[in-house]
Amino acid sequence: MPTDPDEPPGLEDAYSLETPDDSRALYARWADSYDRTFIEAKGYQYHEHVADLLVAGDRPDGPVLDVGCGTGAVGEALRARGVAEIDGVDISREMLQQAGKKELDGPVYRNLLEADLTQPLQLESDTYAGLTSSGTFTHGHLLAAPLNELVQTVKSGGRCAVGINAAHWTDHGFERWFDAAVVDGVIRPFEIHRKKVYERSDPSNPDDMTNIVVFVVR
Question: How far apart, in whole angstroms, are the C-alpha atoms of residue 65 and residue 132?
Answer without folding.
Answer: 6
